[in-house]
Automatic annotation (TrEMBL):
SUPFAM superfamilies, A to Z: YWTD domain
Biological processes, Gene Ontology terms: canonical Wnt signaling pathway
Protein's organism: Loxia curvirostra
Entries under InterPro entries matching the protein: 6-blade_b-propeller_TolB-like, Cueball_EGF_LRP_Nidogen, LDLR_classB_rpt
SMART domains cross-referenced by the UniProt entry: LY
GO cellular component: plasma membrane
Gene that produces this protein: Lrp1b_1
GO MF, one example: Wnt-protein binding
Protein name: LRP1B protein
LDL-receptor class B repeats: 1-43
Length: 179
């Protein structure tokens, strides 16, 4: 799945398959300007910053069990969001510091370090990296990913795929080759 935010005409948090199909709004009310998103891959939660409402909130992958983690003026200057163990990590663009926020009580906010010009933060940890398994976009005997002549995108599962073409090309009737 692909998770993303949008705050154009109607602010929302959405999810879709990797090929863009099955697009679903998971948060579309009481949301104004969601600017950063983080996933808890193990427990299947989506966290986001809303800089207009000055809040950090969370829902499960289906948009249920919504909770506010923390709220207040300090959220206005946050950018980037990552989750690791019991904490959320973010960057305060005003003080140029990395902040750690306890994701269950929200009141334990601690500045960890100062960085200049940081706008994003990511945590890489072996447990959260998916094990590599066979998938529909693996190269076929002729070296084409998933049998697609240009681009292979995973679809509703690791066993399904959609072929797409680069700009200026159209997908042929075989749904694999681009012309």
């Amino acid at each position: 799945k692909l998770f993303f935010t949008d705050y154009g005409n109607a602010a929302k948090v959405e999810r879709c398959d990797m090929d863009g199909m099955n697009r679903t709004w998971i948060v579309d009310s009481k949301i104004e300007q969601p600017t950063a998103l983080a996933l808890d891959l193990i427990n299947k939660y989506v966290y986001w910053l809303d800089i207009y409402l000055e809040s950090v909130e969370v829902v499960d992958y289906q948009g249920r069990r919504r909770q506010t983690i923390t709220k207040g003026r300090q959220i206005r200057h946050l950018c980037g969001l990552a989750v690791f163990e019991n904490y959320l990590y973010t960057v305060n663009s005003d003080s140029l510091s990395i902040l750690r926020i306890h994701r269950y009580n929200g009141s334990d906010v601690q500045a960890l370090a100062r960085l200049e010009n940081a706008k994003e933060i990511r945590v890489f940890q072996k447990r959260t990296q998916a094990a590599v398994r066979s998938h529909a976009c693996e190269s076929d005997p002729s070296g084409m990913p998933g049998g697609c002549s240009h681009i292979c995108l995973l679809s509703s599962s690791h066993k399904a795929r959609t072929c797409r073409c680069r700009t200026g090309f159209i997908l042929g009737t075989d749904s694999r080759s681009c012309k």
